[in-house]
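Because showing beats explaining, we think one record worth quoting, sequence and backbone structure tokens together, and here it is:
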Amino acid sequence: MTKILMTSVRDDEMPAINAFAADHQLDIVTTPKLINDAVDLTKDVDGLVIQQRDKVDPAVYPQLKANGLKQIATRTAGFDMIDLAAAHANGLTVTNVPAYSPRSVAEHALMQIFRLLRKSYRFDSQVAAGDFRWFSDEQAQEIHTATIGIIGVGRIGGTLAKLLNALGAHVLGFDVQPREELKGIVEYVSKEELLKRSDVVSLHVDLNPTSTGLLTAADFALMKPTAGLVNASRGPVVVTADLVAALKDHQLAAAALDTFEGEEKVIMTDRRKKGLSDVPLIAELHEMDNVILTPHIAFFTNNAVKNMVDFSLEDVLLVLAGKSSPHEVK
């Protein structure tokens, strides 16, 4: 029986894992550990599925090769935790799950766009302090009167564009590869024009050398002082120090961040006692009443979790059968 190791497994993933194992007659071994701490478990398995934000230890790749493994599947869209050159040098095929559920992240971004337009961050802060008043500068904007800019109009960004269009919003898009099927839904413009015209900018780009540091102080200076920013892509797309400064200087009104630089140090940790003093930029964001932070959960829906499990395991079986996966990362 084919045996597959899955690392960093959470309880909510187990129903999908057990169902897949039963349907395909597999022996799936699970551990809550990262592969860095569980590489010894690969000695007697045929395949490997991981999920983590920390970099895979360089020592892991030759150990996987020595243990006879041929692949690494990450059940995430992002794969920057894997050193592709090291993996390939050790004969390991790498796969990811690029489209586990575009609606999961798109719906999260839509929710945050609504929250920014309705200025719910202001009311959350006031009511938590016992202040139930409302003020003239808290007047909201109805979404059908708003212009929303999407940077990265791929699977997720395109899904968001359709949702926004259905609600009557005017949608601007910036992407290096405009999609013909979205004409009439998205008005494609330059990044600079998008930043200048948008009431909310939503980021949906992959993390790569061209997207790292995509938004800096110069970009925030182009935005309306009443505008908001949503980041449900990857933290390093935004230069956090510049964002903090822009928010403090009122160059933009608010931000809703599901991803942020340094998140690997705080996501899935309990900071109620320890605090955030060791991550000062995140601490500043956390203290601002015009910032909404969520712990990288835009993906976290019923469909997405099942698809991440199913698609990654299907890729393992394809590679083990000597077939090519459409999700191979080269």
Residues 3-100+302-320 form a domain with the Rossmann fold fold (CATH 3.40.50.720). The longest helix spans residues 302-320. The chain is about 35% helix and 15% strand. The chain has two domains: 3-100+302-320, 102-293.
